[in-house]
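An example makes the point: we print one protein in full, the chain in one-letter code, the fold tokenised, without further comment:
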Amino acid sequence: MSRPRPHSDASATTTAATSPHATTAAAPASAPSRRTVVKAAAAGAALAAPLAAALPARAAAAAAPVFLHGVASGDPLPDGILLWTRVTPVPEAAPGSGTGPDTPVEWVIATDRSLSSVVSRGTVTARAATDHTVKADVRGLRPATDYYFRFTAGGVHSPVGRTRTAPAADAPVDGLRFGVVSCANYEAGYFSPYRHLAARGDLDAWLHLGDYIYEYASGGYAYGGVVRTYQPEHEILTLADYRMRHARYKTDQDLQALHAAAPCVAIWDDHEVANDTWSGGAENHTEGAEGAWAARQAAAKQAYFEWMPVRPAIAGTTYRRLRFGRLADLSLLDLRSFRSQQVSSAGGAVDDPDRTITGRAQMDWLKSGLASSDTTWRLVGNSVMIAPFSVAQLPEFVREPLGELLGLPDLAISVDQWDGYTDDRKELISHLRSHSIRNTVFLTGDVHMAFATDVPVNATTYPLTASAATEFVVTSVTSDNLNDYVGVSEGAVTSVADPVIRTLNRHIKFVDTDQHGYGVFSVTPQRAQMDYYRISDRTDPAATEHWVRSYRTLSGTQKAERTYDPV
């Protein structure tokens, strides 16, 4: 999000020896400065103390391993699932420290929570080289089946997690349900949306659409105030920094609960590296003063693949495709690693056909996948909004803060979204139309606002012209939105801004500019529906939730419509 720089079926028991997971990006090649080394050492020491304090008395005496960052699973396949955890073998082996012994970690997966009906087990090794994170890519499981898993190191058990495999590729599926989240600023509030999603117990998986972490220094991006602090407190630049920030996030009990409740499917956006990331840099990166961009980007990506339950995908990025029977496939995009640099909306630069948000290879992969899909629904995990979003004629008292929040100096369009790369959008929409591809639904995060919108072939003549797809955008988990930035109570701005936004953008059916929460996306052969939920107060760790609105698209229509009950 643009924003100003901060002031096969097999059920028999098997034994698998799974190698430690590999990362796709090396540690930064350039030697760190003395200042960087000192900062990393200090931050590592700061984390080691609470880690030692967290050890049970018996474990501390024996220096037994502990599991302080929970367990997770991800990227479900019909016959497999990826399991993840991080073990702290000794107190000194704090995240980012680069120290600590190699530690064997056993994993087990079963069909019951008590783990008595084991179907597979194996051992991986936690090493300092991968920050003592481990992954087990387990295969030979049954499709569309709940499983339970646990890790053990030095006789110490992790919590038990629940996961679920995808339906068989050719299976008829009556329905799927996904939690959908985006944009979680640790400092801005508590992760209550994660807690409420974890408590549902009905999710096939949950999608994180980007900005899982934020890179800023403490206080650097929390206009509504700092509720709790990052580690490290400085802006993260090095591999050690990114590891520590991921670790800080995964100490959150609500996030741990959601990871332990259902498999995660994640993509990155910009803040997993730096604000407004593009292929050659970022708005929030100063070359030289903050090291080399290539080193910072490589460090961020290495830490991401270490700390997230994600399989490294095509070209070492997050773009990949999952299938859920004959009901839906899910194309997951990386809209940061290959994009051209953002430009001003003035002078027609956003229409330059030489500029791209996807890169040529990813665009061809996406188009081919959409055209060849034989599922009822084609879902696209999309980190930034694809539907046009014009805000130029908003009242000044709304336009100015919205421009600051979104980083739009001329406040016509957000050039960090697909609006800034119109040729790629035209190419994709033309492809959907020319190949008669129906039931394409984009699932999006980034803008800290909720939308239900059509994706028009021509926004200026809509609704007299066709819609090519629909898009459901979820708001932030905690990251500041419009009323937070302005500093007014919830509803004070949205009552003015939302009707004007819908008037200026006739394809937008619903917008909420000031909520925090999550979505629940449900798919059947007849319809795809997003239920929008809001939490009562992001600064309250016990925040309640309530349903706000629901929108759906009926099969074959390519249009969003309101429905009056959540699934």
